Amino acid sequence: MNATRTKCLLASALTCALAASPASAQGAPKTKMTTAIPPGIATPDKVDTRLGTLNFFDGFPDDATVERLYDNLDFQRAVQAYLLAIPAVNQAAMRKALLHWGPANTTMPIWEDLVFPRTVGLTFNTSTPYAWMWIDLHAGPLVAEVPPGVLGALNDHWYRWVVDVGLTGPDKGQGGKYLILPPGYDGEVPEGYFVARAQAYEMFLAFRTFPDKTGDLEPHVALTKQRTKVYPLSQAANPPAMKFVNISPEPFVTVGPGDDQFWELLDGVVQSEPPSTGDPVTLGFFAAIGIEHGKPFAPDARMKKILTEAAAVGDATARALTYRMRDRAAFYYEGSAWRTAFLGGYSFSRDGIKLLDSASQYYFYATGVTPAMEAKMVGSGSQYALAFVDSKGQPMNGSRAYRLHVPANVPVNNFWSVIAYDNQTRSFLQTDQTWPSVTSKDKDFQANADGSVDVYFAPERPKDAKNFIQTLPGRGWNAIFRLYGPLEPWFDKSWRLGEIELVP
Q1: Are residues 46 and 137 in the same domain?
Q2: Is residue 150 within 8 Å of 165, Cβ to Cβ?
Q3: Counting beta carbons within 10 angstroms of the beta carbon of residue 209, is it exposed (0 to 12), middle (13 to 18) or buried (19 or more)?
């Protein structure tokens, strides 16, 4: 018997042996060229899933199965698109709100008298005036003149950090001129500017001013209006006048909708920004549901139904990620409710991996992103601790009374505050109080004899409660504890913040 024939016989014997495998039991014909198929490759004729029973003929899906699978695929992609789009839609809502007061590049709304709860905006503070404006680079480079003493940044249309301005920016709080260049700009770059190369064409400029040593807001607000200018580089020799609007007393909504209106706002961002400004994978999710640059967004009845449900599930998922974060690395202490908003830092990444859940929860809950917000700057900058449940892990109920015990010697160089926010809007809790906050620099602030502080949250002031934040019966709330100028005991955790506890 020659070698070739021997090999053929052995191969045939192996084929026969393998043909007795489970694959042959499914009715696979035995031929001379049959290869036994390892388990897991072939699909059964019926597959039971959460989608129901999927039917196949020898691996080929029937019409009903195909329809069910495409509906599911479109739904899955829509939910993921929703979570990925939260930053952009956050910005789209911001754009709409700011442009209500005047055109981009020319109009700056200012909360001259601090932000009142009539403003529905993501997690503002009650201590510093804000100044915001919308920037549009479609016509070419812009110059932004920033006053001294502010703290702020530029974030683009996709909510990516562009550059810090003011105290944490290259001007180091001295003020200066920033030249903002649009994507792909290859023209002349004159000297005398802090240069920022943008990745997108539209963005918002936001900064905070501060009270003077006496607590007066007006001097720095006046300086902002005097020294802030935004104008095209081509008009640098004769800049046009700026328009400033005091919106402190005005009802003002910057929070975007979570329902199917969400998709219209997202389409506006996608149409405004060419694909080169975005992430290809993220844009792929948007395109998969019919939102693509240069093409009309016109979903049919089937897709409208899917998008409506996906928006509801997307909003619900964002709330779960925010209020019930499951990554324990985000929490400051073992067994504590207090956690950071910046798991993975301002870029929401760890070891080169994007932390998708962390990014979604942050942009659902907050506004503005910059390295300075999460950087360890002992004695300067700020730190944030968030609480969405009480010491027993239960959501805070506005019908009940709670106490936050703040131990003595809070490690701050400046001051600290705690503010209550509405769970629905992630904005100030709107009650009969002027502000839903307690700060260590309040005129009526009172410490205990040992230097510690008790803050009470309740629908009515508890007896003997010195520091009180009003809540609303039947409504939920959450809290942020801010440290301005945090000191080392905060970072090394030798000082520990108390929990929010239900009062018996």
Answers
A1: no
A2: yes
A3: buried
Report in angstroms the alpha-carbon separations of 18 from 5, 35, 482: 20, 8, 68
> CA-CA distance, 255 to 158, in Å (whole number)?
16
At 18 the pLDDT is 34
Residue 316 lies inside a defined structural domain of this protein: no
Residue whose token pair is 């919308």: 134
Rounded to whole angstroms, the Cα distance separating 120 from 140 reads 32
What is the total count of domains within the chain?
3
Structure-token match 């930053």, residue found: 87
The last residue of a domain, from among 199, 220, 246: 246
With a CB cutoff of 8 Å and minimum separation 6, the contacts of 293 are 270, 271, 273, 274, 275, 283
Final residue of a domain: which of 246, 271, 298?
Answer: 246
| CA-based nearest residue to 421, from 322, 307, 309, 278 | 322
SS3 content of the chain, % helix, strand, coil (to 5): 30, 25, 45
Q: What residues in the chain have per-residue pLDDT under 50?
A: 1, 3-25
If asked whether residues 48 and 146 sit together in one domain, one would say no
What is the spatial order of strands in the sheet that 46-49 belongs to? 46-49, 52-57, 60-61
What is the distance, to the nearest Å, from the Cα of residue 476 to the centroid of all Cα atoms in its chain?
21
Count other C-beta atoms under 10 Å from residue 370's C-beta.
21
DSSP letter assigned to residue 275? G
Examine the domain organization and report whether 51 and 108 are in the same domain: no
Task: Pull the structure tokens for residue 179.
Answer: 């030249």
Q: Which pLDDT tens digit goes with each residue over 113-155?
A: 999 999 999 999 999 999 999 999 999 999 999 999 999 999 9
Question: Is 74 part of any domain?
Answer: no
* Number of neighbouring beta carbons within 10 Å of residue 53: 11
Q: Report how far Cα 23 is from the mean position of its chain's Cα atoms.
A: 50
Beta strands in 167-223 (DSSP E): 176-181, 194-197, 202-208
Domain residues for the domain of 41 are 3-64
Locate tokens 């520990």: which residue? Answer: 496
Largest CA distance in the chain: 106
Does 86 map to a domain?
no
The tokens describing 206, both together, are 């936001």
* Among 467, 420, 407, 409, CA closest to 442: 467
How deeply is 56 buried, as exposed, middle or buried, from its count of CB atoms within 10 A (0-12, 13-18, 19+)?
middle
